[in-house]
Amino acid sequence: MGRVWLARDEMLRRDVALKEIMLPVNEEAPLREARAAARISHPGVAQVYDTFSDDGRSWIVMEYVPSRSLQAVLDTDGPLPPERAAEIGLAVLAALAAAHASGVRHRDVKPANVLLADDGRVVLTDFGVAAVDGDSLATSSGLILGSPQYMAPERVRSGAATPAADLWSLGATLFASVEGHSPYARRSVMETVTAVASEEPERPTRAGALDQALDGLLRKDPAERIGAAETERLLRAAVATQPARAPVPAISRRGSAPVVGRRRRSAFIAAAVTAVVVVAGGVGGWLASRPADKPDVTAAPRPTTSASASPARSSSAPSSAPVRPSGQASAAPVLPAGWTRYRDPTGFSLYVPRGWTRSKEGSIVYFRGAGRVLGIDQTDKPQPDPVADWRGKAGYRVARGDFPAYHEVHIRAVKYFRKAADWEFTFTRSGVRQHVNNRGFITSPTQAYGIYWQCPDAGWQSAEKDLRLVFGSFRPADD
């Protein structure tokens, strides 16, 4: 068992997750987990910065990922739509592929170890029971570690830790995502282990477009189980069945950071605060999470359609929007005919075209109409540099394939409220070239917003005039 504390690195002035190893293990145990995670370079794997011992206790210093676990989402909000589960599955699959390529098998893939981060990432965490090529410590004990409900049958029977076993656990995690429980949910550990070893998994009833992927991943014989390439194909096909939705990146982001120096170890102990999440059941079931009293800021689902390359044909003039120095509002533009002022329950307001359909997905408010999409997101944890924030998001999301045939027009600072930056780009969706401007801006030390605008690239020039009206009309909460 272990506990994860939210701590402050006083030298680098950043939050970190400080994991205290609670099991009665030797000092090599935290090193094994650190070595496993450190071998993997992927945005979907939580970074390890340092390990150390202090006063007889072992600690791991890790990247703090503001997030909710997939398990917490299921417990609070209920099962996910199959298409959203498939999106999460693709991200976890990418993290597993990076781990397997580095000679690491996770061995404990489950909803509690999948973090849905505030910055839009899906992060696989807790490599505490991972098997590492060339590391005798990972296999010498003879113990079979992990969570039985999400453990592959061959692991229960023989302890075999292979990439195929991780894929089975991914399948069980996706099953839980749409059904609300694992395919082998039983009343006791012994009943669960017996069922995993000898019974067929429960058939899903809510899998929808995910059914074929679950059928292939949850085959008891690893020789018959589908591999990573086929899993990716089936998950992408499942995602493609969802209605078109705007790919609004979240505003809040915690970037990666340099390795923590050993000379500052005592500072971490002194800076550790009350545990954010103390423990979760099962071996390797601990994680760092956001404080319960903070609102969640999540990213909208991503497009996954096939793409054909096309050059961007225009760029915006973001500086034409009214400037509000130091967060003070200037006079609002005249409300044109066919528009109305929308006032959000959280306090912000802006002009939107009449007749557009409003919806809400997580923290994001959407308005859709005339082939265009307007999205507004917000966070109470602004990042200090909007340009750097967008560059980090762009690199991650483009690498993940969220924007097919992506072409960046620019990422640049603009004069708007306290600090702001525009991320303008084009991409292809369903054979249509789309044009996007995403403006992230800070209105106070504790508040930032994002305004996302998407329309067909062919109509960008006329749509851009409406976007300037939206920018000019925006008023933050308490303005």
Structural class: alpha+beta
Q: Main β-sheet, in a few words? A: 7 strands, antiparallel
Task: Give the helix proportion (percent range).
Answer: 25-40%
- Overall shape: it is globular
Distance between the termini: 47 Å
Describe it for me?
There is one protein chain. The chain has 479 residues and is an alpha+beta fold. The protein folds into three domains: 85 residues, Phosphorylase Kinase, domain 1, CATH 3.30.200; 173 residues, Orthogonal Bundle (Transferase(Phosphotransferase), domain 1), CATH 1.10.510; 156 residues, 3-Layer(aba) Sandwich (Protein Transport Mog1p, Chain A). 26% of the residues lie in helices and 24% in strands. It is built from eleven helices and 18 strands. A seven-stranded antiparallel sheet has the order 12-13-14-18-17-16-15, sandwiched between helices. Strands 1-2-4-3 form a four-stranded antiparallel sheet, sandwiched between helices. Helix 3 runs antiparallel to helix 5, helix 3 runs antiparallel to helix 8 and helix 5 runs antiparallel to helix 7. About 20% of the residues have low confidence.
TL;DR of this structure?
The chain is α+β, with helices and mostly antiparallel strands and 479 residues long. It contains 11 helices and 18 strands. Residues 133-144 and 244-329 have low confidence and may be disordered.
